[in-house]
Amino acid sequence: MIIKKLSFDNFRNLEAGEIYPDSGINVIYGNNAQGKTNLLEALWLFTGGHSFRGNKDKELPRLIDGVNSLYCKLSADFYSFKREQNAEIIIKDGKKTCSLNGIGNKSAAYLVGKICAVIFSPEHLDLIKEGPSKRRAFIDAAICQIKPSYASILSKYNRVVTQRNALIKELFKNPYLSDTLDIWNERMASLGSDIINERLKYIEALKPYVKDIYSGMSSEKEKLDLDYICSFNTKNDGDIYTSFRKALDEAYKSDVNQGFSTVGPHRDDLALFIDNKSVRSFGSQGQQRSCVLSLKLSEAKMLEKSVGEAPIILLDDVMSELDNKRQDYLLNHLTDKQVFITCCSPETVNLLKKGKTFYMENGEVIKKDL
């Protein structure tokens, strides 16, 4: 997938204009608050999702005298699935609509799967720094991209956990209701084992990519490994379902005392190790950033394998805390895909051997020669 032209009018702080990106590496540089991330945000919206910054649609049009205007328009000419295509997004009165190849649609979700992208932003460092929920969310979102039906299983499982938790709180006061717990245990084990099996399968497929990418970023001096940490013992029984069902029964007293379900995929984690040491506990800032980048770039590899085309890579403020060798890897070794990288330092641009550079100042995009 390649963006050949991006046009923007009244979007964020961007001056109305257009860019013609390189099919390989594109570096957008300039001082803070000049619009670099806004440009990536414009590209991301063509995946059919919401802003990766969590902003509402009504907040995306340009600010005029401190108030969001009522209209903005984005347009992208792109090459995907062996043909030239065009997509447009219009936000008017807080509502977003789109068109693909001249055919309009009320919802921008219509664009899902038409342009695929993987985004890294500084917030993704929470994958390492924060608790297990962030890492579970990463795995689940990645699986949903390649297997949409997985989202339905997750939703059903979460509802069952909520209902089981409500019953557990009642059991503390009314133990006679324990006979009904078996129904929820059965449902929870059935759905939960499907989730865990999908996660394990995804992690095993992801591992070779993660190890290879991180090895390249560290000039083969460090080794990154992943391990899925299940909240119950899975080694003594024949399958995940049997182990989970047994664990739910054994957790009965603990669950009632604590007032919630203490075992299941909603309690699992993904552990990362560099040379057998926990990245979260012992990794430097640069190592942690490199780990998250390796995960996101590996996610792109998995998506490419699923859809048959390399997704666009969007890397926002990625270069800080990375040494020159790791920066060189990102700038010059991500071949066969289109990449957009934002950074502040002009010195970083000098490392780029092939591609295009764009300087941003006060929302204006200026093409620069290498």
Tell me about this structure.
This protein has 370 residues and is an alpha+beta fold. The protein folds into 2 domains: 2-116 and 309-368, P-loop containing nucleotide triphosphate hydrolases (Rossmann fold); 128-280, RecF/RecN/SMC, N-terminal domain (Glutathione S-transferase Yfyf (Class Pi), Chain A, domain 2), CATH 1.20.1050.90. Helix content is 40%, strand content 24%. The chain contains 11 helices and 17 strands. It has helices at residues 36-44, 126-129, 132-146, 149-173, 181-217, 240-250, 252-258, 279-282, 285-307, 324-332, 346-349, and strands at 2-9, 17-19, 25-29, 63-64, 67-68, 71-80, 83-92, 95-100, 103-105, 117-120, 224-229, 269-274, 277-278, 312-315, 339-343, 356-361, 364-368. It has a 6-stranded antiparallel beta sheet, with no helix packed on it. The chain has a 6-stranded mixed beta sheet with strand order 10-14-15-3-16-17, sandwiched between helices. Strands 11-12-13 form a 3-stranded antiparallel beta sheet. Helix 4 crosses helix 5 and helix 5 (181-217) packs across helix 9 (285-307). It is globular and about 70 Å long. The model has no long low-confidence stretch (mean pLDDT 91).
**Number of helical segments with 4 or more residues:** 11
Which structural class do you get from the secondary structure elements?
alpha+beta
CATH superfamily of the largest domain: P-loop containing nucleotide triphosphate hydrolases
Largest sheet: 6 strands, antiparallel
CATH topology of the largest domain: Rossmann fold
